[in-house]
Recover the amino acids of this structure.
């Protein structure tokens, strides 16, 4: 995530004038070699001997960051900033200190405290016409996102997603943008962002799940068939990566919405059999069987549904339709009449079905 932590500039050597040049050079050499524990000890000795040595405090903060001792980063770097603002206010290392403090808080998931140092880094770098590290915008944008400050998060995440990084970090930026728009029920923007996330990280389960749900919600509001079809594609990819009931539920609902009933059967069967007392699950399974022409299995599933929820008008109506399709008109009439009674005898469509079945029965005589 962090491309680089800037090392202290050469002029900082001059700020440690009372420390021996050998101690300073040794500390810098150890830092450059990645021996951060030993380098930290050297710079702590220098800071003890000369508390106003900004460079020593700066390196103490950097060493602790490199050692992932994030809780110990802010105090020495804040002290380094205070000294540098007096001794060398134009130093680019002030930017580096704010940058590192901000990232330390971000990596600790302390998003509120991360805001000020990251913002300060970007402000100073921008005013100095220095290139702003995209990772800082990314961390700041995500901090705002986790704090649910979406208006501030959106432009930062959009900028970092377009920063040329086409790997998983860019995919995550698009995911957070999509999640933000999803929470706002802006499914056009949510789906657009999530599709970009899938392009760069096609096997991310969270993105595929959110994309499928966003597309289904959009399709439900607008009755747009293409959105249902896209939701099926996302659900199929999700189920291939994560074979569980949650994926089956998403795929099953998407297939039902897209009227791809044959594809809906397998995931809805998985849910129904995993929840044998859930009448609603058996209803959806029965409907998928019915609409895909598997009438015998549909009868069994819908009969089970009615055992669990005897007054379910959709289940009764669907079962009656199955019997009617199978030319078992007496059974169909009996169940349509049950559905009409359950509706309070005022459902015009059920009455039409009853009249139709009676006409079919009279033709058989």
């Amino acid at each position: 995530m962090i491309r680089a932590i800037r090392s202290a500039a050469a002029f900082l050597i001059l700020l440690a004038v009372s420390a021996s040049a050998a101690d300073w050079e040794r500390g810098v050499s150890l830092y450059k070699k990645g021996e951060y524990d030993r380098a930290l000890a050297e710079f702590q000795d220098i800071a003890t001997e000369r508390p106003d040595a900004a460079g020593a405090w700066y390196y103490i903060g950097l060493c602790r960051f490199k050692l992932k001792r994030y809780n110990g980063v802010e105090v020495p770097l804040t002290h380094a900033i205070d000294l540098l603002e007096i001794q060398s206010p134009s130093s680019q290392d002030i930017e580096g200190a704010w940058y590192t403090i901000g990232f330390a808080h971000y990596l600790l998931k302390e998003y509120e405290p991360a805001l000020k140092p990251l913002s300060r880094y970007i402000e100073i770098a921008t005013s100095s016409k220095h290139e702003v590290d995209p990772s800082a915008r990314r961390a700041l944008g995500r901090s705002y996102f986790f704090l649910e400050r979406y208006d501030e998060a959106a432009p930062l995440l959009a900028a970092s997603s377009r920063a040329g990084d086409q790997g998983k970090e860019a995919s995550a930026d698009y995911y957070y943008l999509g999640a933000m728009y999803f929470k706002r029920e802006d499914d056009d923007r949510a789906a657009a962002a999530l599709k970009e996330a899938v392009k760069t990280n096609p096997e991310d389960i969270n993105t595929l799940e959110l994309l499928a749900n966003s597309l289904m919600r959009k399709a439900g509001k607008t009755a747009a068939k293409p959105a249902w079809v896209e939701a099926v594609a996302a659900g199929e990819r999700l189920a291939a990566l994560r074979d569980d009931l949650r994926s089956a539920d998403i795929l099953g609902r998407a297939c039902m919405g897209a009227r791809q009933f044959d594809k809906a059967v397998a995931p809805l069967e998985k849910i129904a059999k995993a929840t044998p007392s859930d009448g609603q699950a058996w209803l959806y399974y029965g409907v998928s069987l019915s609409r895909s022409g598997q009438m015998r299995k549909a009868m069994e599933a819908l009969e089970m549904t009615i055992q669990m929820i005897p007054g379910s008008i959709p289940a009764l109506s669907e079962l009656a339709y199955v019997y009617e399709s199978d030319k078992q008109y007496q059974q169909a009439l009996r169940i349509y009449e049950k559905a009409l009674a359950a509706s309070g005898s005022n459902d015009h469509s059920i009455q039409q079905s009853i009249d139709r079945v009676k006409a079919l029965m009279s033709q058989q005589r």
About this structure: The two ends are 79 Å apart (CA to CA). Residues 7-11, 13-19 have pLDDT under 50 and may be disordered. Residues 1-165 form a domain with the Serine Threonine Protein Phosphatase 5, Tetratricopeptide repeat fold (CATH 1.25.40.10).
